[in-house]
Design a protein that fits this description.
With 331 residues, this protein is α+β, with helices and mostly antiparallel strands. It is 43% helix and 11% strand. It has 14 helices and 8 strands.
Length: 331
């Protein structure tokens, strides 16, 4: 097996040095791990040994993520020199060109599921009728590649090690790669009508990626909480001046305006924004007495202010009448 590995490494090195436009379909790369496994470059993630930041390793710590083996450069890593570093960079660029990724990726899901398609369509478009089909419905969806869905699902668990650091890394990736992720925010369904040569595709609703970004708990705050985007404020002078420390601010940078709008981050003071923050405290059962106290004082001051909008006051009244937004400390 060692001999086979060395032979494959030499072949890969030959392609790296002499092929101007290497064909990634004809090259398999070794996956990091104890077992001997070779897979397509597009299925692998870049580890920090190749000179990229260790963010992916930290984000997927504790999970079986498919990283590229560093064995291709193990001799170069044994001795630091400018020449060796140039060679490591050459390997890194070569693998990136082949399709190894240095960020979390997206996978497409295509399933035959007529019942689920009908249910989702009726939920998303109650005033419309689904297209008729004589061969059932297929659903096409997009989700984050394993193990990122597991990571996101774990961030609301206070017992998860390094969850705040992982959430900061996730914010960084989603912000920097938003142009890539925003291409996969919708799901669709396909149907077939009698006499047609192929199936027709139509919109169905939000993809799993869209739901994860907008609805899941993954955003770190300056007070080290993890909350939903709609419960967090972008740290701007306007919000700071008006809200002070009454609300939670994102611990990280979200610079893409379309991401801010899609995920529903709060960018200006409003009753709805503060209510969303309060809902986040309640949903996660965060026993932060001072946080609740600041919210209640804010609402009290808003009602006392004659300049406050009547619509905002009515919104707050209805929220407290219909929802459990009161903090009752334990004895």
């Amino acid at each position: 097996k060692i001999h086979q590995d060395e032979k494959l490494f030499k072949y890969t090195d030959f392609v790296r040095r002499f092929e101007v436009n290497p064909n990634s379909d004809k090259i398999l790369l070794k996956k990091e791990g104890v077992t001997r496994e070779y897979v397509a470059p597009s299925k692998l993630l870049m580890p920090p040994e190749y000179g990229v930041p260790a963010d992916l390793k930290k984000l997927f710590s504790g999970y079986d993520a498919p990283f590229l083996s560093p064995n291709y450069i193990h001799k170069l890593l044994s001795k630091k020199s400018e020449r060796n570093q140039d060679q490591i960079n050459s390997w890194k660029n070569f693998f990136l060109k082949l399709g190894v990724k240095d960020y979390p990726t997206v996978v497409e899901i295509d399933n035959y599921d007529s019942t689920k398609v009908r249910e989702e369509f009726e939920q998303n478009y109650p005033d419309k009728k689904i297209k008729r089909t004589n061969m059932g419905y297929y659903k096409k969806d997009f989700t984050f590649k394993h193990p990122l869905p597991l990571v996101i699902g774990s961030l609301c668990d206070e017992n998860v090690p390094d969850r705040v650091n992982k959430s900061k890394i996730l914010v960084k990736f989603i912000n920097e790669k938003w142009d890539y992720y925003k291409k996969h925010l919708g799901s669709s369904y396909s149907y077939h009508v009698l006499g047609a040569q192929e199936r027709t595709e139509d919109e169905l609703g939000d993809s799993e990626i869209a739901k994860s970004i907008r609805d899941k708990t993954w955003v770190p705050t300056l007070s080290r909480k993890i909350m939903k985007p709609s419960q967090v404020f972008i740290n701007t002078p306007e919000v700071r001046e008006s809200m002070g420390d009454k609300v939670e601010y994102i611990d990280g940078e979200i610079s893409d305006i379309s991401l801010i709008k899609f995920a529903k981050f709060n960018t200006k003071p409003s009753a709805d924004a503060v209510l969303n923050y309060l809902r986040g405290l309640v949903d996660q059962q965060i026993a932060d007495y001072e946080a609740y106290r600041r919210m209640y004082i804010y609402f009290k001051q808003l009602f006392a202010d004659s300049k406050s909008l009547s619509t905002e006051k009515e919104t707050i009244k209805k929220a407290f009448q219909k929802e459990s937004l009161r903090f009752i400390p334990n004895d």
